[in-house]
């Protein structure tokens, strides 16, 4: 880089001025278009879920709500043999178990890696990070075989949530947060007050790391709720034990089959998406900032 | 600290103390769940899969009834006529179609939002992040409706401007684009978020200094933003490569288990799934999953090399 002699009396720099060919209106148009394209499929699914089935694929298409919400709900129940809500519950149960156990085990391990010095700490943490390099796909076949031939867990909900209870991503996220947000003196102080080590974690650390618990909680819940391939592989694909994504695929019979009841299908699409939307909108700020906080550091 | 402490301590530390014992032990106990679970659901399956890759085995025959075939499974997959290559080609092609535009759109978008619309950043991020957080299956079904040949919204819009309907999910050369669009739509916001957080880490002073030196918006982007964003770009590229190489849900839902007409959307993940769980050829499927692992590893290394070639330190 070339250096130029410094001019004296440099005026105090202000915020960078707008110097773009499009101007502010153009920027808003660009960003507005991106936002529009992001939400339009959601809007359409909600609108179409309220249409009479015959009008879902009408020409010209309908873009406003109608009055068939309840009727479509009934059709969805019929199409699944009355099991739609049972499938909803199956997914909910698995997602809740996955979330609670993941939060517990990952924060506990993250606490240990952030707040203790112990022999082998660097090696153990490095090993955990290393396991992140294994593509999940390589695990599909062997984990089915372990579940099928050794544990006999195939067809059981726990096949979906037990293996991921303590995972590398969660431990990494927790260690980063606890290490940077909580001072070690906190642990010392609690010890002097006579707390046990687990007591320190449970009563001192856990209440202080709520933000990152919210992040990991939402991410885990969403991941588990959407776990289509896992449920397919573990054969949660029959009658009452089905999870919601499998049930949805079953009643739609693929994405382009127009000879099924699309009112019922869309109702189930909404049932699948709505809990995630609500959960995310409640915690979106936290999720977004939490997810990216440890992305590049370390 | 109280001056009495040193008097009390030596006597205490010589004796066995439950307090000290559990302090020593605690970190090992707290981190052990990961290692126990990994041993059962990670390490053992991995080794088992490696073992199977050299065997011919149908899981219905039960444990022990496998036949050693050496490298035969790998040779079969590496034969140029094998479906493995076809699927890998589809995977890379769809991955490029979805991945390259993701970053070409996300980076400028993040720059614009960060630089000029900062007050709205939170709200915009939330909206752009929505596609990432929602169910792949549900949203893919909605896209399938939009793609529908006779009655879908896309062809309706084409009809309005006088164009013939397009067979989005039936023409083998178009299907990769249709699948890639869904993937692009789901992940572009995620990349915007990554780049936004990378941009926030760049000090405002650098830009101010550049402004004083008379740099234009483009020069600032080219000579400040891009170089300082390298670590985040590396991270985002890596996630895209690793994710796109394992693409499963979107093509599976859009085109069915076989990848649609001509199998144009049959990805490696789908092919391995079909081989293992439909054809019950677990050895061959295991071998292919290791080859795919190798492919992902090589691509990640290429990415790593491209980013560390010059200014890896910057």
Helix content of chain A: 55-70%
The biggest sheet of chain B amounts to: 2 strands, antiparallel
- In which range does the helix fraction of chain B lie? over 70%
Low-confidence region ranges of chain B: 1-12
Oligomeric grouping of the chains: heterodimer
Q: List low-confidence stretches of chain A.
A: 5-10
Tally of DSSP β-strands of chain B: 2
Shape of chain B: globular
N-to-C span of chain A? 29 Å
Major sheet description of chain A: none
Quick one: how many beta strands of chain A?
A: 0
- Beta strand % of chain B: under 5%
Helix-strand pattern of chain A, N to C?
HHHHHHHHHHHHH
Average pLDDT figure of chain A: 88
Largest chain-chain contact?
A-B, 104 and 106 residues
Give me the Rg of chain B, rounded. Answer: 27 Å
| Biggest sheet, spatial arrangement of strands of chain B | 1-2
**SSE sequence of chain B, one letter per element:** HHEEHHHHHHHHHHHH
Based on secondary structure, the structural category of chain A is mainly alpha
Topology:
The complex is a heterodimer of chains A (298) and B (314).
Chain A lengths: L22 H26 L20 H11 L4 H32 L5 H11 L4 H16 L6 H4 L6 H14 L2 H9 L4 H12 L1 H16 L2 H6 L10 H9 L9 H32 L5
Helix pairs in contact in A: 2-13, 3-7, 3-10, 8-9, 10-13, 12-13
Chain B lengths: L4 H10 L3 H35 L2 E2 L10 E2 L3 H7 L4 H34 L4 H13 L2 H12 L5 H8 L14 H26 L3 H9 L4 H12 L1 H15 L4 H7 L12 H11 L3 H27 L6
Antiparallel strand pairs in B: 1-2
Helix pairs in contact in B: 2-14, 3-14, 4-8, 4-11, 4-13, 5-8, 6-12, 8-11, 8-12, 11-14, 13-14
Account of the 3D structure:
Residues 5-10 of chain A have low confidence and may be disordered. Chain A has helices at residues 23-48, 69-79, 84-115, 121-131, 136-151, 158-161, 168-181, 184-192, 197-208, 210-225, 228-233, 244-252, 262-293. In chain A, helix 3 (84-115) crosses helix 7, helix 3 (84-115) packs antiparallel against helix 10 and helix 12 (244-252) packs antiparallel against helix 13. The longest helix of chain A has 32 residues, at 84-115. Chain A contains 13 helices and no strands. With 314 residues, chain B is mainly alpha-helical. Chain B has helices at residues 5-14, 18-52, 72-78, 83-116, 121-133, 136-147, 153-160, 175-200, 204-212, 217-228, 230-244, 249-255, 268-278, 282-308, and strands spanning 55-56, 67-68. In chain B, strands 1-2 form a two-stranded antiparallel ribbon. In chain B, helix 3 (72-78) packs across helix 14 and helix 6 packs across helix 12. Chain B is globular and about 75 Å long. The two termini of chain B are 45 Å apart. Chains A and B meet through helix 1, helix 3, helix 4, helix 5 and helix 9 of A and helix 2, helix 4, helix 5, helix 6 and helix 8 of B.
């Amino acid at each position: 880089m070339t250096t130029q002699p410094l001019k004296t009396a440099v005026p105090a720099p202000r915020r960078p001025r707008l110097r773009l060919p499009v101007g502010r209106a153009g920027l808003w148009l660009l960003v507005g278009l991106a936002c529009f394209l992001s939400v339009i499929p959601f809007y359409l699914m909600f609108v179409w879920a309220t249409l009479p089935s015959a009008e879902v694929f009408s020409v010209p298409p309908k873009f406003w709500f109608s009055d068939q919400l309840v009727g479509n709900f009934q059709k969805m129940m019929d199409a699944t043999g009355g099991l739609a809500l049972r499938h909803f519950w199956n997914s909910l149960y698995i997602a809740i178990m996955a979330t609670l156990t993941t939060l517990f085990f990952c924060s506990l391990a993250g606490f240990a890696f952030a707040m203790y010095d112990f022999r082998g700490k660097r090696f153990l943490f490095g090993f955990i990070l290393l396991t992140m390099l294994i593509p999940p796909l390589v695990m599909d076949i062997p984990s089915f075989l372990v579940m099928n031939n050794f544990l006999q867990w195939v067809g059981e909900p726990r096949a979906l949530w037990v293996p991921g209870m303590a995972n590398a991503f969660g431990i990494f996220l927790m260690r980063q947060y606890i290490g940077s947000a909580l001072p070690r003196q906190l642990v010392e102080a609690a010890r002097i007050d006579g707390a046990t080590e687990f007591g320190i974690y449970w009563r001192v650390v856990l209440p202080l790391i709520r933000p990152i618990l919210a992040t990991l909680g939402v991410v885990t819940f969403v991941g588990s709720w959407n776990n289509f391939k896992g449920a397919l592989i573990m054969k949660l694909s029959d009658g009452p034990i089905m999870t919601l994504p499998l049930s949805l695929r079953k009643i739609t019979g693929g994405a382009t089959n127009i000879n099924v009841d699309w009112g019922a299908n869309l109702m189930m699409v909404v049932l699948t998406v709505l809990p995630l939307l609500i959960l995310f909108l409640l915690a979106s700020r936290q999720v977004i900032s939490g997810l990216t906080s440890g992305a590049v550091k370390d | 600290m109280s001056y009495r402490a040193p008097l009390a301590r030596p006597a205490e530390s010589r004796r066995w103390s439950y307090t000290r014992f559990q302090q020593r032990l605690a970190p090992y106990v707290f981190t052990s769940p990961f290692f126990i679970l990994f041993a059962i659901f990670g390490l053992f399956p991995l080794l088992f899969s490696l073992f199977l890759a050299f065997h011919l085995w149908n899981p219905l025959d039960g444990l022990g009834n496998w036949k050693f075939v050496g490298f035969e499974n790998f040779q079969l997959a590496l034969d140029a006529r094998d479906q493995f290559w076809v699927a890998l080609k589809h995977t890379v092609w769809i991955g490029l179609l979805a991945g390259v535009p993701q970053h070409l759109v996300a980076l400028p978008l993040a720059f614009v939002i960060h630089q000029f619309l900062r007050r709205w950043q939170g709200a915009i991020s939330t909206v752009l992040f929505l596609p990432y957080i929602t169910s792949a299956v549900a949203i893919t079904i909605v896209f399938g409706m939009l793609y529908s040949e006779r009655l879908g919204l896309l062809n309706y819009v084409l009809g309005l401007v006088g164009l013939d309907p397009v067979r989005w999910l039936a023409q083998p050369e178009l299907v990769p684009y249709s699948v890639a669009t869904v993937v692009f739509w789901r992940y572009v916001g995620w990349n915007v978020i990554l780049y936004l957080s990378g941009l926030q880490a760049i000090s405002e002073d650098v830009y101010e200094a550049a402004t004083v030196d008379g740099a234009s918006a483009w020069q600032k982007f080219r000579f400040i933003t891009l170089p300082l964003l390298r670590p985040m770009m590396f991270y985002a590229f890596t996630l895209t490569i690793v994710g796109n190489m394992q693409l499963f849900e979107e093509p599976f839902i859009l085109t069915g288990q076989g990848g649609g007409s001509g199998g144009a959307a049959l990805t490696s993940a789908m092919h391995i799934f079909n081989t293992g769980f439909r054809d019950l050829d677990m050895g061959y499927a295991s071998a292919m999953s290791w080859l795919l692992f190798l492919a992902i590893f090589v691509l990640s290394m290429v990415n790593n090399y491209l980013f560390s070639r010059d200014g890896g330190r910057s």
